[in-house]
Fold:
Amino acid sequence: EYDSQSSVNTSLQSWISWFCTLPGNEFYVEVPEEFIEDDFNLTGLSSVVPYYNEALEMILDIETEEKDSQQGQEDPDEEKDLTIEPYAAMLYGLIHQRYLLTRHGQRIMAQRFAEEQFGTCPRVFCDNCPVIPCGRYDQVGKESVRLYCPSCMDLYHSPNDIHVGVDGAHFGTTYAHLMFQAFSELIPIDHTRIYEPRIFGFRINERSPSGPRMQWLRMRP
Structure:
């Protein structure tokens, strides 16, 4: 009885919910179907994503609904699904990048940032400041997701190797910094502490090969 109930719950789960619960995809938010169904929000993506229409149908569960109506007539084309699935993930990621720029998307990520759902900065002087996922590029396939710290204003790799497969373009270069503009109260007040290397208590000169470099950049107000 439990197995049958579990299979029913799985069949009722939307593709978006399924994708966001996959191991390593916890950084994503669930984009509302209303946002995806608005053609304006998808402008230009059809020329970027192969099998665009099929991928969009998979994201919106349209194909699944058609198969359910034809249940008993023929088995689903699993091979086709396996072909389309990577492009559905690619399309959803690019839609996700745009959704994070909306007011609602910003609010969701601000709340998750405040709750430290993405982890904290590994830098000692940042005092466990929360980090937020972002990308260095807006084009897919260039680099995996990075974690941005608003205290030291630097980028870090995720400590979990499972996030290596998450494309940084699915978050993009803009939303995180736009979010801190809208929610400036989330920015740490004190972010000027910098480690000073010393030998027997004396600071190392900047001209030394082992001396500090460009500290003035982080000392700016």
About this structure: The beta strands are 132-134, 146-149, 154-156, 198-199, 202-203.
